[in-house]
Structure formats: C-alpha cells, structure tokens
User: Fold this.
Amino acid sequence: MKLPNLSDARKRTDKKTEYIYLDKEYDKSIFKGKKYFIKTYGCQMNVHDSEEISAHLENIGFSKVEEMEDADIVILNTCAIRENAHDKLFGFLGRCKHVKTTSNPNLIIAICGCMAQEESVCSTIKEKYPYVDLVFGTHNICDLEELLINKSEKQNIEVLSCEGNVYENIKYKRDSKFKAWVNIQYGCDKFCTYCIVPYTRGKQRSRKSADILKEVEELVKDGYKEVTLLGQNVNAYGKDLDGELSFAELLQKVADTKIERVRFVTSHPWDFTDEMIDVIVNNDNVMNYIHLPLQSGSDRILKLMGRRYTKDEYIKLFNKIKDKVKGASITTDIIVGFPNESEEDFKETLDVVNICKFDSAFTFIYSPREGTPAAKMDDKISLEEKEKRLYELNELINNYSLMNNKKYVDRVEKVLVEGINEKDSSKLFGYTETMKLVNFEGSQDLIGQIVDVQITEAKSFSLDGKLKR
Ligand code: SAH
Ligand code: SF4
Ligand code: F3S
Assistant:
C-alpha cells in the first residue's frame, strides 16, 4: 500500500525525467472472458489516459463493455479540478456499491486519475469506502497489469506522489479510428494558485520529438485524419529538455507528416510565440482554432492567480492571432469568484469578453482545492454573488457565440464527420476546421470522412447544415 502525500506532490527537484520504453508482453488468457467498464471524468488528457488503461486491461485478456452491470471490473478515471468533480465520483460510487451488494459481489471497483492523487481522497476511501478494491494514480497507470495479476482480497491503494517519468510504447486502444489524441507533454510547473493539476500530474515533462513523430506517422499510415497534440501546457513543449524542438518546430514537423488535420490543446498565453502563429498560418493542415484560457480580465486577480500576463498582454496576443490567422476561432476558459474578486475585477473580465468576443468559453465558479495557495486566501464573496456573475458572464458569452456562428451561414465548411446525432438519428455530426459542431443529414458511410457542408442555420452551440454534393 502506498498513499499519496501533498508535500511530495508539490516538490520539484532537478532529477532528470526517465524515459521508459515498455516492452513486457502479457498472457492474454489470464483474464480471458472478463469484462471491463470504464467511466472517464475530466479533460482530454484523462480521456486519453482511459485509452491507455484500456490497453493495459486488454493486454491481460479483458474486453470492454458499455454497461457497468455487465462488467467484472469498473474503472473510475477521476478528475479533481473542482469540487463538483468530487461529488460526481462519490455519487457514482454509490451505484457501484449497489451492483456489488445486489447482483455482482465479485465486482472489482478501481479508482484512478487525478482524485486518486489527492491525499485526503485516499484517506477517505481507506476509512469509509472498504468496497473500493483498488486505487492507482496518474504516475503508475502502466503498473495496472501487475496490480490486477497480484491483487489480493484486501483493499489496495497504490498511488505515487512524484514528479513523474515518461512512458513510451503504449499501445493505446483508441476510441476513434480517424481522430487521435497524442500526448506531447505531461504535467505542469506553472502552479497557478487555484489549480490542482501540478500536484496531480507532476512536473512538466516533454516526450522526445522522435517518439511523437513516430506515433503520428503510424497514425497517418493507419488512416487517421486528425491528431490533437495534448498537454496541460502544449506550447511549453520542449522547455524541459536540452536540445529538443520548440513547440512551433514540433508543430511544423507534425504538419509535414501530411495528416489532414492538426490541433493542439491547451496553449498558455505566456508561452504563445510568433513562430507558432507563423506555423499555423503557413500550414493548411494546422487548424485555425485556438483555445486560449483567459481566467480573469483583472490584472489584480491575474496576479493573485499567478497567470504571468496582464489584461492588455492577453488582448494584444488575441488581436495578433486574429490579425494573422485568417478566420481563426478562439475559445477560452474563465473563472469567476476567485477569492475576493470585486465587482470591478469582474467588470474587467466582462470588458475582455466584450473586446475579444470569444467563439465560446468554458466558464467556472472558483472552487477551492486543498493544498493550493488560493484555498488559503480569505474570501468574503458569497456563492450567491458568484452565481449571479457566472450567469451574467454566460449570457454575454452565449450572445457572442451566436454572433460568431451566424457568420457561418451560407458558407461551405469542411467537416470531419464523427458520428450519428444522439437526439436525431437521421442526422450526422462533425466539426469544422474551426471546431464548430455541425449537424446535417447524410449517410452513415460518411463517418470518418471530411465532407463539404453548406451551413444553413446558426445556434449558440452548434450549426445546422446541408451536405454539398
Ligand atoms: N492547463 C490548462 C487548464 C487546465 S484546467 C490551462 O492552463 O489553461 C481547465 C480549466 O479549469 C482551467 O482553465 C480553469 O479555467 C479551470 N479551473 C482550474 N482550477 C479551477 C478551480 N480551482 N476552480 C474553478 N475552475 C478551475
Ligand atoms: Fe493549472 Fe495553470 Fe498549469 Fe493550467 S497552467 S494546468 S491552470 S497550473
Ligand atoms: Fe481534471 Fe486532472 Fe484533467 S484534475 S481536468 S482530469 S488533469
């Protein structure tokens, strides 16, 4: 048993990242016939981690099912970013307990992901959730085969609090046959004062560009149409490695593989270079869509958040991207109600929204995370006030989303068709180059292809269109 602890999670030493090339083969008959169900919370990184977890499970014979009730093992891949992520997990655990006590007493319940990295979560599980069988963290996903092969009857918590290594040769079980996530960088050293990620994911460590490019080339060979380069700070890529490519150089090399679409997420404004903008402009297959978190428009709050830019610097960068990257769509993340955010501070945020007129935004009420500096800050603003601000902000954001979407009407857009619309099975859905969701009628054979769609109607969160023949 290994429990996580905050002080080790926070530590940054000058220990070099180890690059570990996995090569162990497992016997697929060990858990032959056994089924797994995986539920994923949180960001794209976690979605991609679930594709890794699936690979480790399938290595030892498990196969995937879509209903928890049919499973022999349930994996809950958790997120810790805000308190409501916690609530969701504990809610779902109740359902798992019900299945375990009523229909399947042998059900293995496993928890992993960012919440597993939290000291307080593991002690709660240890004390109050005896029916959870296994907890592992973000740093030892690749030990999953061993953890299951050697599993005993007792609850096992195996979570490492460390800076982390880089694992290669992972044979991801990707959810899609045409669109793939590719990690380029793990962890984060920015330590924004509200954020738990540097504690749950370890230090910033870049993969070697040769390994990344090899992975992308294989994806191209396998017929993939789109890759999204992933990292908590994608554009800080390479800064932790001597002699490695910069993010802009890596992006150029990924574009050179001729994959049809390249995306990247998430960029930090502080690491956004002119070279990156040039690569986006010069390569048709690098999509003109950028997610650029703002967090707040108030210089005072940005400073308290540790974001390393001012309101003016953000706006300048935004305008530079808009000027150079024709037709770019830019989305953002905004937090309202950071400790003691005043009405004036909030007005500054609204001011940036009015200037930038974002294509869309993820907006959140600040949620104190244990162990982060902001959680210790005094806060006199009521939840009611914060909810009011969130509502006002969302109204404004939605107006601009609709306004931006309306510009698409009558235009013909290239759409990568992803699947069948859940609410209306006569329709397909997919995304434009600028990451706009489009619904339109068409045959299922089009799934996985890039097609021309004429936009007929704009809504706040999506576009309707007609297939162009
Ligand atoms: N690495 C990315 C963000 C990862 S977290 C970046 O730096 O932009 C995704 C978003 O969650 C953040 O952009 C932020 O808006 C929000 N977030 C993070 N911590 C939060 C907290 N404690 N309370 C509310 N929102 C938070
Ligand atoms: Fe969190 Fe800031 Fe790192 Fe993003 S850059 S993951 S918000 S600490
Ligand atoms: Fe959540 Fe961890 Fe991602 S905290 S947002 S799953 S990095």
Notes: The CA atoms of residues 97 and 131 lie 7 Å apart. Residues 383-406 form the longest helix (24 residues). Residues 42-43, 45-46, 79-81, 113-114, 196-197, 200-201 surround FE3-S4 cluster (ligand 3) (CB under 6 Å). The radius of gyration is 23 Å.
